[in-house]
Amino acid sequence: MTWRPTLWLVALAVIALDQITKQWALSALEPGQKQPVLGDLLSFQLVFNSGAAFSLGDGYTWVMTIIAAAVTVGLVVFARRAQSRLAVSLFGIGLGGAIGNLIDRLLRDPGFGQGHVVDMINYNGWFVGNVADLAIVGVAAVVLVMSLTNRPLLAPSGGARDGAASAEHPSEASSPAQPADASTDSAREEPRG
Length: 193
Description:
52% of the residues lie in helices and 12% in strands. With 193 residues, it is α+β, with helices and mostly antiparallel strands. It has one domain (3-153). Strands 1-2-3-4 form a four-stranded antiparallel β-sheet.
């Protein structure tokens, strides 16, 4: 199970970066005030989001919390079928983003399960996001490109693990069984002496 360490290490790195930048935003930015980085194109602006992206679901924070928890579990389950280290890393990035925002939903004001997500990166006034959002959207874009170019991330469900074991050890997957007693060939040889 070589996927586990990579999945969790990548996820932890994204979670740490997300939470560190959120703490920075809370200490360095005034809510609602823009600080330009690249003119109007990109700026920092502290916003507390009770909904999902583009403030969808505003007022239904507990629903967003349940969805975030379900996505987190789904990512862990599907990561087990990842076909490559790249796929495992992508799942780790997405998992880190999902957990980063889930932490806000569970632990920030106004209360457990209804916390508002800390956002601070304003994209030309279109929307305000955070590092977790970048991770989730970035992974979604890469997965889309990979699926359009017919590069699957997941092994087929079912006997995928057996097939992988057979590919690694072809002798174990041979169809007819070899004779159990190899001495029959030596018994046919004429004794020398």
